[in-house]
Amino acid sequence: MMAVDGNVAEDFLFDVPYEDNVGATEHCALCLLVVPSLAAAQNIFSKPGQTVTLPCGSPKNNTTPATWIKDGFESEGCVAQFRDNNFANASQHPSYRGRVKLNRNKSLTMKKLTTADSGTYICETYWGGSFHNETVSLIIVHKEQNISNTTGQTVTLSCGSPKDSITDVTWIKGQVELNNRNKSLILKNVTVNDTETYQCKYYEEGEQHTEIYHLSVDPAGGDSEGRRHVGLAGVFVFVVGVVFVVVFVVVGFVVYKRHQKKKKHPPVCPDEAAVQQLV
């Protein structure tokens, strides 16, 4: 029932088998009834076709019971479940068969991601005499962009292309949903407080899409002020250099003229001067 790669000592993966095993365990939703509350979800971003690993935080114990579900789809089946040293294949949702692997610490590796894999995943484990759970929000990103700007300017973030026919637009700043349902999010007079990751979620032809914008806002005049100081210093050095060259040329010219003048009127020795006076 369980395929183990013995070549890896610490982080080997359990392949969740495809064949059915109806008697392996109860339905995956039953054990989750005892979960008291769910912590804030950790966001994990990935793209269609890629492979991603969702953390669980369980001890590296092969026998630790673990259940992975997708929030809102409990009645349709588990993503993966390991219990009584066996995988509960009967309770696994068909869309995850052959695509998921369970790690020693019960984190979940999922490959060949699609848009439909977006959502909140819950990992429940039982160890130390109590249940533990971790919530992960998997976001399949169709577009990702880094944007840099300076304080006081206007930034416009746009979902999809102008020709796209999209509906149910939702903008999220960090973890906070914004009150904006338009394709474009206009941020006026931005400040450093607007530095954040923005998500735009929308539906197109019945399929949900997510776009990510990483906005970075520099303090007012930060870079330009630095460049201005560097520019002024450069101008000062240039002017001092020019003045030095001019002074050097003038002094050299004066010395040269004096030297030439001495050549035209050589000094007269005393005897010659006396002779000249007698004459």
From TrEMBL:
PROSITE patterns with a match to the protein in the record: IG_LIKE (PS50835)
- What keywords were assigned to this record? Membrane, Transmembrane, Transmembrane helix
Residue ranges constituting the Ig-like domain according to the UniProt record: 36-137, 152-216
A GO MF term: MHC class II protein binding
Give the transmembrane region(s): 232-256
> Can the keyword Iron be found in this entry's annotation?
no
Q: Which GO terms describe its biological process?
A: interleukin-15-mediated signaling pathway; positive regulation of ERK1 and ERK2 cascade; T cell activation
A single Gene Ontology CC annotation of this entry is: membrane raft
The record's PANTHER family line, in alphabetical order, gives:
DIVERSE IMMUNOGLOBULIN DOMAIN-CONTAINING PROTEIN 1.1 ISOFORM X1-RELATED, T-CELL SURFACE GLYCOPROTEIN CD4
The name this protein carries in UniProt is: Protein turtle homolog B-like
Tell me the organism.
Parambassis ranga (Indian glassy fish)
